[in-house]
Amino acid sequence: MLATILKKLQFSSDYLSANYLAKELHVSKRTIQNRIHLLKKEGKKNGFRIQNNYGKGYYLKILDAKKFSDFYQSLNSDFEINSEKALIINELELLIQRGTKYLTADELAENLDLSKTLVFSKMFNLEKYLNTYGLKLERKSHYGLRIKGSELNILQIIKDSYERGDKFHSIIDTKIKNTNYVDALLKKNLNSQQSRISYYKYVSTRNLLICFIYYKLTFIDQYSDDKDLTHTSIKSVNNLLLPLSEYFVININQNDVNSLGKLNRLFAEKKTAPNVKKNDLKRDLNQFIKQIDLSENTKFLEDTDFIDRLTNHLLSLFQRINKNINYKNPLLIEISVKYPLVFDITLRFYSFLKEKYGYEISNDELGFIALYFLNYMEKQKEQKLTKYKKIAIICTSGGILAEMTRKRILEIFQDAEIKTFAYYERKAIEKFNPNLLLTMVPINLNFEVPTIFIGELLSNKDLKDIKEKLFLDDQKKNNSSEAIFNKRYLNLIKSNLIFKFKPIAYESLLKKMGQELIDKKYAKEEVIKNILIRESLMNTIYQNGIAIPHPIKTDAIKSSISVGIVEPDLITPSGKVTLIFLICLSQTDRELYSIISNDLYYLMKEPEKIRSIVQVGTCEKIINVLEKIEV
């Protein structure tokens, strides 16, 4: 939101009122005033000043273009992701407080101090996050929203939210009123059994009990037909849960014991933990990684250090699970947004561990595992840059500007030979024989090397864009950077892959589109199965009716993007479906996925453009709209 406010002020020749900005951004006037106040504080150190005139509004004055540009770019990256994470957390906490009762859109918007339109436009991120817990966001007309899922999964997300701290921690403690009783009872039970557990395990057990009591007080018991327990063979149930049920007037049944036992071994029947040997684990891991390498065209298996480190991490993880030790790691949300390929691999790894060893891996631990894959892939990306040994920068003029640009490019290519040239020095450029061209002006040189257009003043975001463009240059080369790097995927949208559907079951639509890919020799026979497997792990229906399904394996015969136009909208429990972009890539094009999903993410924010695609419904219109999206 801060970036949008700045952009509107920057391109306005006159003052803009708070009322105007509130209407444009679908938020309250108070929200705009709060954001402007924050921008004013940031302005002094970031090269700008926001002036306000009573009765007119706000006006932006840029004092230092370089500082302002860097600040603006930072708002469009990490700051935006952090804002999305904060919104997910706030929405989640409001829904948990409501329990099995519905929360209306008006109540949600009022509590978040946002418009209903904006709240619903951001709801897809919350749905994705809930799906990682095996939960769904139920939407019911005239009623509102609520969380649906098993006791185990709801209890897990309540505990994670409670341990995140802040306001929600005090909300739960206030509702339970006497958390000291839980503390005293737990310590008494541990002393009587002479249990020696770490302080962190004690805190985790205490938090689980508090969240369990909150769950029983807030969520209507889905298993009310189960008989209340009076005695079990598990000492901690007899000595902890049954006294708690009497004190807080809640019912305890066998399903409660089962759920708590999966979250904390203190409440589970004693079982022998699987004895996983390092050599066996490494062998199984190699087999799994080999499948990933084949399906995703990666080279994880070649890095023995990566395999060894991941093996050791898993052995440590299994020991922690057996001892009920939990580490916190809230990174999975951010990874799912910023690194979709890594996220998909992590989901497949979760299924592999569960099937092979019977371990249920928490979201926190999945976040740690994802970091191993992410770190390897980022390391491989950086290594790709080292192949560019001679870099020519073609400038509009020489002097200080050329030298400034050269120094900034040195930040990326520290070991390369980098020279600057004027746009007319053709022979000198040919003699230098570069394997990478960076140019500020249009050129007509017959070099079979990557060519990237750059601005005269390079920001940190510009340097990042240069790196990202070069990461895609392994398989196909062309002189036009715009065609190669940014929009090459538009060639994958074909007129024979544009379909118009009436609203039927979402899974049926995916099967129809998958079958078309098989019939037209774009995909292999198993593509439908792989699309549905990916969908079962987390649904791909996002904001403003955009769905982006894809197979769990990247192994198309020919890369393609098929588009399904659903009219009227299909209404599903996960939201409406208007446009389906089924992405099916070959191994050589797999890195295009992040570019495609990024453009589609920005399309989600443009309901008018979505409507124009639906109304015209042609391949040309779809390409035209996506071509004009500027990220």
Note down, in words, how this protein is organized:
The chain is an alpha/beta fold and 631 residues long. The protein has 28 helices and twelve strands. It has helices at 2-10, 18-25, 29-43, 65-75, 78-98, 105-112, 116-121, 123-132, 151-164, 166-176, 179-192, 199-218, 235-248, 254-263, 278-296, 304-322, 332-338, 340-357, 363-385, 399-410, 426-432, 460-471, 481-486, 506-519, 527-537, 592-604, 607-616, 619-627; strands spanning 48-53, 57-62, 136-140, 144-148, 390-395, 417-422, 436-439, 451-453, 498-501, 546-547, 560-572, 575-584. The strands form four sheets. Strands 6-5-7-8 form a four-stranded parallel beta sheet, with helices on both faces. β11 (560-572) and β12 (575-584) form a beta hairpin. The longest helix has 23 residues, at 363-385. The model is unreliable at 474-485 (pLDDT under 50).
| Helix content estimate | 55-70%
Q: What gross morphology would you assign? A: globular
Total of DSSP H or I helical runs spanning 4+ residues: 28
Low-confidence stretches: 474-485
Number of strands: 12
Mean pLDDT: 82
Overall SS class: alpha/beta
Strand order of the largest sheet: 6-5-7-8
Main beta sheet, described? Answer: 4 strands, parallel
User: How big is the Rg?
Assistant: 28 Å
Distance between the termini: 15 Å
- Beta-strand share of residues: 5-15%
